Amino acid sequence: MRVVIAEDETLLRQGLRLLLEAGGFEVVAAVPDAELLLEAVEEHRPDLVITDIRMPPLHRDEGLRAALRIRHEHPDIAIVVLSQYVQRRYAIELLGGRAASVGYLLKQRIADVGAFRADLRRVSEGGTALDPEVVAVLISRAGRGDGVVRGLTRRQQEVLAYMAEGRSNAWIGQRLVLTEKAIVQHTSGIYDALGLPVTPDDHRRVLAVIRYLDGAAD
C-alpha cells in the first residue's frame, strides 16, 4: 500500500514513516505542509493519504482543506486526518457525502500501534475509522440538543457509537459479548428511533448516523 504523509512536526512525520514502513506500508512521500501534500498526491497517486489538520502557514485547517480537495479530485484515494483536537465540524466536512475510505483519528491513537495500523488498513479497504473520542463528542452534543438520542437505551447508544466508528455488526457483537443477531435487533431499533432507512451498506449507515448527529447538534 502506497502512502503519502503530511505532518509539519519533523519528529512525528519521521516517526510515522518508520511506524508505517515497519508495518509493511510503502511511504512514497512525507511532507511538511498542505501545498506539498497536494503536489505529492499528483506525483505519486498513493492509495492512502495521512495528514494533520492544522499545518503551515496559518496552522488552522490547511490539512483538512487539502484532504477535502483530494477527496473531490481523487475519490479513489483513502484519507485519514490526524488531530490533537476533537472538532465536530471537521468530522462532518470530512465525511461530506460519503463515509467510505475516510478516517478521523486523534494523535494519541498512534500510541496503540497495532490499532492504528489496523485503522489505516480498514480505511484503505473502503472502511471508516472515527476515533472513539470523536464519536463520543458527536453523540453527547446530539444528546443535549435532541431528545431522540437521549431516548435510546444505553445498549443502543453503545451500538450507535461503534456503528459511527465504522464497526461491523460481528465486531460489535464480539466487543459487547452479544450475538450478531442481537446486534441486528439493536441496530433496527436505532434506525426506527432515528427515522433512518435500513440498508446493508455499512458506509451509508455510518454516514446516515453522522448526518443525524450533525443535525441534532446544531
How many angstroms separate the termini?
Answer: 38 Å
How many helical stretches?
A: 11
Q: Taking all residues together, what is the mean pLDDT?
A: 85
User: Sheet bearing the most strands, described?
Assistant: 6 strands, parallel
What is the radius of gyration computed over CA atoms, rounded to a whole number of angstroms?
Answer: 17 Å
The coarse silhouette is elongated
**Percent of residues in helices:** 55-70%
Adjacency order of strands in the biggest sheet: 2-1-3-4-5-6
Secondary-structure element order, as H and E?
Answer: EHEHEHEHEHEHHHHHH
Strand content of the residues, in percent? 5-15%
Q: Can you tell me the residue ranges where pLDDT is under 50 for at least 5 consecutive residues?
A: none
Structure description:
- Helix content is 57%, strand content 14%.
- It is α/β, with parallel strands linked by helices and 218 residues long.
- A six-stranded parallel sheet has the order 2-1-3-4-5-6, sandwiched between helices.
- Strand 5 (102-106), helix 5 and strand 6 form a beta-alpha-beta unit.
- Helix 8 (154-164) packs across helix 10.
- The mean pLDDT is 85.
